[in-house]
């Protein structure tokens, strides 16, 4: 199992993972967010990304104003920078571009290892290891057809109901 808390696994990954590693390290992205316990999550770490996939970073945020100030201080000069708030999740999100990557930083008042994005990624990684390469390629194919990641997994696994919850039940 990959230690997703240490980016070094990306160094020996596919070309996109290696490129992501270089961008994150060269721009000190996680270092700038260290007080918010950042974790890179999503499809790139588990090798099911498609061309439009972004770098998703989740953060543990106690104080939204402090987090917003930190995002502005470190990233507002980046191309396409914008901040939005998700009232339903009581979260802040920043999006911007560095080189060829869109980066999304998501913060909410839940420890990062307990956030659904991290839990989904760990579950999906385990399933990819169990089900093999053909399954991984089927997931990528569904994503290219427009399926969100969790919906693609639910479809291939025959999970009923809310795909996001159904996957969490596999935790």
Map the helices and strands:
Layout: H1 15-26, H2 29-32, E1 39-41, E2 55-60, H3 64-75, E3 79-86, E4 91-98, E5 101-108, H4 116-131, H5 133-144, H6 149-157, H7 163-168
Helix pairs in contact: 5-6
Helix percentage range:
40-55%
Shape: globular
Evaluate the radius of gyration.
Answer: 16 Å
Strand order in the sheet with the most strands? 1-2-5-4-3
What sequence of helices (H) and strands (E) makes up the elements? HHEEHEEEHHHH
Secondary-structure arrangement, i.e. CATH architecture: 2-Layer Sandwich
State which percent range the strand residues make up. Answer: 15-25%
Largest sheet: 5 strands, mixed
Distance between the termini: 14 Å
Number of helices: 7
CATH topology category name: Beta Polymerase, domain 2
Number of domains: 1
- Determine the oligomeric state from the structure: single chain
Mean residue pLDDT: 95
- In terms of structural class, how would the helical and strand content be classed? alpha+beta
